[in-house]
Amino acid sequence: MELPRQACLDCLRREPPAVFEAALWIAAEHDLTFQPETAQRLLADLIPSIRAAVNERSSPVEQAQQLLRQLVELGFHADEWPLKPHAALLHQVLVRRRGQPLSLALIALELAFRLDIPLSGINFPGHFLLRVPGADHLLDPTSGRRLYSPDCKMLLAHQFGPQVELNASHFRVALPYELLQRLSRNLRQLHHHDGQLLAALKDAQRVLELGPPMVSDHLARADLYGQLDCPQAQRYDIERALLLSNDPNEQLELTQRLAELGGLTRLLH
Fold it and tell me: Span of the secretion signal (predicted)?
């Protein structure tokens, strides 16, 4: 039987990439008794209700919003704070009908794909969003509400404060591997906050396997290794972060951390 991590990566190599199935394999990595086929059946059970709510004569923009509103009618909502890992584990989201914006968006994207409704994921910071290509607005996967530029500014300010300015990069369509990296980062954070360090380490490692990592990804894994008392592995990730960093202040801080770990000589030579 194929291991969940390898099955997830294999899904990305298909054409088109099977993002929903890959996300199920991520869930299976944390629940060894779970079979993705069960979640696939739960999703398939939603299709008749969604199809009945979508007007075939409507524009793609209207159809996408009808799909999202029907999901809300079926009980799919944002999970309550503080969030737990089950808010990002897709099979549990399908059962509980509660989740993070990204996990709800992954369900909506797969339903839209099966019903031939054009819909894309938008890597908006702090709150994943959706968009029909060419539309003048975004869609909130937790409510189906249309979000125009002023709404997006308010959402960004709510997440990060008024000092952060909205820019074009916030509206970029998420590539398949980016969807799964973001899901894995969410799980890494949720498992970490829940005290499940080994589960968080699985997520941290998956982030690095799925696509090009950021400095913060190596630092997140380094912190986990530090808490798990694995100094050599921690040193490796700090070294990788230092090589990736373009920030002089950050480079100085990382160099100091390496010196404290006794790894500076090995890095420089």
Answer: none
